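Sanity check record (used in CI):
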Amino acid sequence: MNKRQSRRNAGRRSTPAPITGLPVAKNDEAVIEIIGMNHDGEGVGRAEGYTLFVAGALPGEKVRVKVLKTKKQYGYAKLLELVEASPDRIAAPCPIYDQCGGCQLQHMDYAAQLAWKRQLVVDNLTRIGKLQVAGEPVVRGPQAADEAEGASAGSQASTVGAGSAEHGIQVHATAGMAEPWRYRNKAQVPMGVTEGGLVGGFYARGSHRIIDMEACLIQHESNDEVVARVKAIGRRLGISAYDEESGKGLLRHVVVKVAFRTGEMMIVLVTNGDKIPHADEWVQEIQAQLPSVVSICQNVNTKQTNVIFGDTTRVLWGSEVIYDYIGDVKFAISARSFYQVNPAQTEVLYGKTVEYAQLTGKENVIDAYCGIGTISLFLAQHAGKVYGVEIVPEAIEDARRNAELNGMNNVTFEVGASEDVIPAWKEQGIEADVIVVDPPRKGCDPKLLETILEMKPERVVYVSCNPSTLARDLRVLEDGGYRTVEVTPVDMFPHTVHVESVAWLVRVG
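Expected output for 23S rRNA (Uracil(1939)-C(5))-methyltransferase RlmD:
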């Protein structure tokens, strides 16, 4: 065999041999009952004991499906027909719901969504954390490391923690929204080209194919209007869209932010290059057509990546920031600032955080993942002193700016990893009555959990965006002398599978 043939053969993907001995094979059809729903919002059914995940199917339904893919333990199937529909099934109001990947649960009644999200939290606490939840059966047995979705297994507890077993964690009903639509204050819209010119919308489910859209039912109406106007102006001016495959074209994303309380709006044009053709004309038309826009920025991203923002941001017109409030706290929001996208539910989430911190005005509080200071400043209204730490320098700059904006001088912010900075604070004589953590999806760094156990605060408040890593970390804290008293799920993202939670822990050992 010559070298060319060897290279060609090496580049071919070998087709895996089909798995034998399964009750179903690829392309088979079957009628199954849906007995649950996984964390991705897919219905879970069984064909002769073999688990199938079915997108779009709801618990309690009988469905006819076509098997798409099989693995040894489970497979995936396509919903072909509803034989018996769930009473929780509704018609999704979004006309492109079946194509867009932004929402996963619009076909499910909102009350049922809230109940499922609570159950998702409960299941993770009991299965992964081996924690006792009030009203749930006691779970015993070794903790499965793979249940933590690839996260480290933490403590290998074989029995329920003493605190949880005695009392049981009170998991409240999910705090939902009275009006669970039009809640997002930020739109990040990828741009593309069709025969009709510039288009922008959202990626089709499971792909990078752009679905053009004029309205998104979970976006604030103002964001829809701004995106539509910016696209129309761009078409008229002949602005090209970035092409992922060739790396050519100019406009990659249009990012729009709206401040719910003040009404101020910001537009960020993310471009594949420094120069924008007809930039002055574009800015003038936006000003004329959209009087709520007070800031127009350009972010330059020339890398071949699916990361939205590049390193360079400049103001094309107007202010560098817009201002908004969460409760009584004012925040400056820049083009790249992280700011919670659902301000109404953020107030609920932070209100519960303050409640669980049980502050009297004298306590020292450490906020271990402080970001731009949102939780820190909420806590500072009720605490003696708040110390915030965050590894992103730009976020700390924003946090300090926001503290100054609100005249809060009882807050100190420092750049660094929590597991490094907090022990250094302890060496300086800084003790914590309360530690608040709001980590990313991967949960707390194991060293941070060790640091918390060494600091021995009276209370820990854990704000989580991932029930599985929350459960894993609560297990570690319980084994280290804490008891989880309550958990409140909060629906920050209605009609999606995401759920935030706030857990309240007290020291017992």
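The two ends are 70 Å apart (CA to CA). If this sentence no longer matches the regenerated tokens, the check is flagged for review.
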